[in-house]
Amino acid sequence: MTDFRSLGVSEAICEVLSARGIESPFQIQTLVIPEALRGSDILAKSPTGSGKTLAFAIPIVAREAHGKPYALVLVPTRELCVQVTEEFALIAGSSVQVASVYGGVPLKAQADEAKSAHVIVATPGRLQDLVDRKLVSLDGVEVLVLDEADRMLDMGFKPQVDKLVRRLGDDRQTMFFSATLDGEVGELARKYTHFAARFEGELPSSRRSGEIDHRFVPVTADNKVDTLVNLLRGEEEERGLVLVFVRTKAGADRLVEKLHRHNVDAIAIHGDKGQAQREKALERFDAGKVRTLIATDVAARGLDVDDITHVINFDPPEEPAVYTHRVGRTGRAGKGGIGITLVLPEQQADVSRVARLQGHVERFEESGMQMAKPRVLYTSRRRGGRSKW
Q1: Are residues 96 and 320 in contact, defined by beta-carbon separation less than 8 angstroms?
Q2: Does residue 79 carry a pLDDT above 90?
Q3: Per-residue pLDDT tens for 212-244?
């Protein structure tokens, strides 16, 4: 059986990993770590939960530091920033200082921490702000990691990422991790790396999804909240934690208030919440103190909680990829899960197309709703015509 020592990881780091109960590397770690320790650029297609953080954190901690900061890790969300920083802390000890940089906290204190750190884990927007104000310098950065690069593009961070990368030397080592390496993400990967070793990792068997039961429920504007309340109460015995997706930040807060009026305990996270508020909410949810979390798509990025048994789309997603991301929050660690989508009359056509592309036509029709006809896309002979569906 492969162990970390056979990958070239130092005895000191192996001892730290062992003390924390980490004995055997996951697939992506086995693939990436030897090449990363050699200083190679890395392109890795790897889903959330595959163990990719240690795949880049171990080589960074093992690297001899020549300055501060010598490594930069860019991530799409505050939650992931905190999560990655915590994983670094598990193996870094006192020899490697790690700082988190993200919005929603005082600028000066964060800048002071970043300037004295060996490794900066940051969201692109806040880091760009610090760099533009000359509060943080990236001149000494030797290693760049882009984690969940596809989500950074989805969230519109490409301009900030481009500006930050242009400030780094061409002789840096770059490690690029993404759930996909196709399309624009692939172009960006090739732009940022040189002669990169390319790998594709899978979720460990202990983290793979169990079977998910997909359900579609027709509602009206008048009974939508009551339907949600009945769903939450009706499945009380079989449900664990419930993640409810809404479209807007204001909608999240309104829904929490309405659920409270029905004596249903719920809490919201979204971009207007302070970092401390978001962390407290997630901590209460993960611990089961509040079993219903209302979230927007952006706030739920990086959310990795194994005990979510139900995902409810209070506001249906408009894109098939978003549906996949949302419902994929349940059915974790090999357990089953339930994904429920509430559908207003005017939403039925669009949701039916999502259901068709996701392979859930039968379940949609079982709800009594009609599938819309497939959209026919007519394009000219010129290249580039694409359909949203």
Answers
A1: no
A2: no
A3: 899 999 999 999 999 999 999 875 556 789 999
Domain end residue (candidates: 204, 234, 256): 204
Cα Rg of the chain (Å, integer): 22
252 domain residue, yes or no: yes
CA distance 156 to 158: 6
358 versus 165: the higher-pLDDT residue is 165
Q: Give the span between the Cα atoms of 73 and 75, in whole angstroms.
A: 7
28 and 166 within one domain:
yes
Count of domains in the chain?
2
- Please list, in sequence order, all residues whose beta carbon lies within 8 angstroms of the beta carbon of residue 363, skipping any fewer than 6 positions away: 214, 215, 216, 355
pLDDT tens digit sequence for 27-56 = 889 999 999 999 999 999 876 667 889 999
How remote is the C-alpha of 195 from its chain's centroid?
A: 27
- Domain CATH for 38: 3.40.50.300
> Do 17 and 44 reside in the same domain of the chain?
yes
Cα–Cα distance between 311 and 341 in angstroms, integer?
8
Q: Is 323 exposed, middle or buried (0-12, 13-18, 19+ CB in 10 A)?
A: buried
Report the alpha-carbon distance of residue 98 to residue 273 in Å, rounded. 24
Boundaries of domain holding 294: 209-366
Classify residue 11 by its DSSP letter.
H
Please say whether the beta carbons of 91 and 17 come within 8 A.
yes
Q: Which tokens hold the place of 285?
A: 């949810």
In DSSP notation, 50-113 reads SSHHHHHHHHHHHSPP-SSS-EEEE-SSHHHHHHHHHHHHHHHTTTS-EEEE-TTS-HHHHHHH
Check whether residue 197 and residue 231 sit in a common domain.
Answer: no
Query: What are the backbone dihedrals phi and psi of residue 287, each rounded to the nearest 5 degrees, phi first?
Result: -80, -5
pLDDT confidence of residue 1:
59
For 249, list phi and psi in degrees, rounded to 5: -65, -45
User: Is residue 200 domain-shared with residue 229, that is, in the same domain?
Assistant: no
Would you give the DSSP letter of residue 6?
Answer: G
Q: Is the pTM of this model over 0.85?
A: no
Residues 23 and 48 in one domain: yes
